[in-house]
Amino acid sequence: MNAKLDSTVTTRPVTRQTYDEVLVPTYAPAQMVPVRAAGLDLWDQEGKRYLDFTSGIAVAALGHCNPIVVEALVRQANTVWHLGNGYTNEPVLRLGLAITEATFADRAFFCNSGAEANEAALKLARKHAHAKYGEHKSRIVSCLNSFHGRTLFTVSVGGQPKYTEGFEPLPPSIDHIPYNDIEAARAAIGDDVCAVIVEPVQGEGGVMPGNPEYLQELRALCDKTGALLIFDEVQCGMGRTGSLFAYMGYGVTPDVLTSAKALGNGYPVAAMLTTEELAKSLAVGTHGTTYGGNPLAATVALTVLETINQPAFLARVKEASLYLIGKLEELVRDYPQVFGIVRGAGLLLGIVVTDEFKGRSKDIQRAVEAEGLMVLIAGPDVVRLAPALIVTDAQIDEAMALMRKGLDKLLAAR
């Protein structure tokens, strides 16, 4: 029988090899295949349990299969799924009210991914600048080692050449400056700049927090030149730093903010937030998305937002962060040949490797995964931890024990 017509295709066995046979090879996933998860626990096809300190790259902030989120999704799935943008829906109206009331923003645009949210933010900046100042004001300033998405526009704005190689010619009028370099920012941000986009905490670029003085200077330079300040909080937002959004902890308010990842706890949803005045630049017909703000996504996002945006919840994130940082610093002291420093914010933390292990963050990731701990990397020299925000002290202790077992075996094998 033709496999494409085989009625058993939804139940027949698949393995990691199936990935190599049928999927476009844009990733090199781990050899184990996760099949079930709950909270911070995850099991693969062989029944092996893992402690997940990745949360799907800072996505499952409330843990896998959180019952509150599941209940909301199922309830909405039995009500209405999709309407199309010729209509609005009650869940997205409630979400819009909640997220604007919780932030600086007056208006929200909902879409499906961080890349789409950043695309909308950058288009808004160009549209606003062209209308107010003229088409000469179109340059975008970003930071080296930043990451803003994988569309041609957003990957060009991101300051990592490895992601743009082979896709030239790239969109013009985009410049990159060193992160946390105030003098470079002053030199680059002139009257022809329409937008400055920055991650308050760089994620993919090595888990690098922005210096408060740097972000404050970006705000001042944008005010001076009429550029829009865009904060990309796709990874560091939604409670990850201990504030609902990182800008709140810095006391620097952007003109535009983008959110995704944890906003849906794994359900695809993203938001671009901005002010009443700026939102006017995206009038009817200037931008859109088929699935953005659909009832399913909006219901999930509202549930996540209401759960995270509670004083006690955010206080616990800060408490867990301090506990995890302390344990990681112990790890640095006990494994000085492997790790140098701990950096990051909240529960988005990175451990920088020493010169002896330079370029080997992936080896460390594999070693601890073999012991049952899932961690991330942030480039070749940083091991990244982004556990669910509901992580307990006991789970942190278990993670550190598994990390030590993996490191011991890695060192013994040298």
Distance between the termini: 51 Å
Structural class: alpha/beta
The portion of residues forming beta strands comes to: 15-25%
Mean pLDDT: 96
What share of the residues lie within helices?
25-40%
Strand order across the biggest sheet?
4-12-11-10-7-5-6
Which fold name corresponds to the CATH topology of the largest domain? Aspartate Aminotransferase, domain 2
Question: Over the alpha carbons, how many angstroms does the gyration radius reach?
Answer: 22 Å
Q: What is the CATH class of the largest domain?
A: Alpha Beta
Main β sheet profile: 7 strands, mixed
**Unreliable residue stretches:** none
Counted by DSSP, the helix tally is: 14
CATH architecture of the largest domain: 3-Layer(aba) Sandwich
Q: What count of structural domains?
A: 2
> Which geometry do the CA atoms define?
globular
> What name goes with the CATH superfamily of the largest domain?
Type I PLP-dependent aspartate aminotransferase-like (Major domain)
Binding site for N(2)-acetyl-L-ornithine: 150, 289
Enzyme class: transferase
EC number: 2.6.1.11
Keywords: Amino-acid biosynthesis, Aminotransferase, Arginine biosynthesis, Cytoplasm, Pyridoxal phosphate, Transferase
